[in-house]
């Protein structure tokens, strides 16, 4: 895979992120109109910077460090990156209007237990973890993969998951168990 094709992959991933933000904004309006409550707003800005930084760092590292495409690594990582996108959109489809890039809980609505949520409490975070190492490693951008993975672990484990778990735990038991 040439660096131009890798750049196209990274740019396509960026375009996918823009589509996510459009869906998220629409869904946030829907949630707030139904009394949705947002928690954990403080970590959202750093999360946006980190995810934008992942894409930019992929482009910078492949160009400045002249990273090669190693087929034995690159092709499996491309498969993982594509599969992570498929899982991401399965999560989005399963949550429907309640999917968001922010932590917004709509009172009175049961937890979603369909789609990948039958198997995992937070499947979208599996997507983020896999994509965070797989996308850069498509073209051996190992520094980007390592730095993103460490920073994402800090952000995800230290802030995002606790905020989401607190928001879900605050739901009445009947609402948590109705899903």
TL;DR of this structure?
The protein is mainly alpha-helical and 179 residues long. The chain has six helices and two strands; from the N terminus they run αβααβααα. Helix 2 (44-64) runs antiparallel to helix 5.
Q: Can you walk me through this structure?
A:
With 179 residues, the protein is mainly α. Helices cover 70% and strands 3% of the residues. The model has no long low-confidence stretch (mean pLDDT 91). It has a single domain (3-171), classed as Four Helix Bundle (Hemerythrin (Met), subunit A) (Up-down Bundle). It has 6 helices and 2 strands, in the order αβααβααα. The radius of gyration is 17 Å and the shape is elongated. It has a two-stranded antiparallel sheet with strand order 1-2.
Q: Which terms summarize this structure?
A:
single chain; 179 residues; mainly alpha; Four Helix Bundle (Hemerythrin (Met), subunit A); two-stranded antiparallel ribbon; 6 helices; 2 strands
Percent of residues in beta strands = under 5%
CATH class category: Mainly Alpha
Question: Which consecutive residue ranges, at least 5 long each, have pLDDT under 50?
Answer: none
Ends: how far apart? 44 Å
Helix and strand content put the structural class at mainly alpha
CATH topology: Four Helix Bundle (Hemerythrin (Met), subunit A)
Average pLDDT = 91
Query: What is the count of structural domains?
Result: 1
Q: Give the CATH architecture.
A: Up-down Bundle
User: Any idea what the shape is?
Assistant: elongated
Widest β-sheet, arrangement of strands: 1-2
Q: Taking Cα atoms only, what radius of gyration do you get, to the nearest Å?
A: 17 Å
Give the ordered list of helices and strands.
HEHHEHHH
């Amino acid at each position: 895979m040439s660096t131009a094709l890798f750049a196209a992959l990274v740019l396509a991933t960026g375009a996918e992120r823009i589509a996510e933000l459009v869906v998220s904004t629409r869904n946030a309006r829907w949630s707030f109109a139904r009394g949705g409550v947002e928690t954990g707003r403080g970590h959202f800005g750093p999360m946006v910077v980190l995810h934008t930084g992942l894409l930019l760092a992929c482009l910078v590292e492949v160009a400045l460090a002249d990273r090669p495409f190693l087929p034995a690594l690159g092709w499996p990582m491309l498969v993982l990156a594509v599969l992570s996108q498929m899982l991401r959109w399965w999560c989005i489809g399963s949550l429907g209007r309640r999917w968001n890039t922010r932590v917004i809980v709509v009172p009175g609505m049961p937890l979603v237990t369909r789609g990948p949520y039958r198997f995992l409490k937070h499947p979208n975070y599996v997507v983020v973890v896999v994509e965070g190492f797989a996308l850069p490693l498509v073209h051996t951008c190992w520094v980007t993969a390592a730095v993103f993975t460490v920073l994402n672990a800090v952000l995800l484990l230290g802030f995002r998951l606790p905020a989401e778990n607190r928001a879900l735990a605050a739901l009445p038991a009947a609402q948590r168990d109705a899903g």
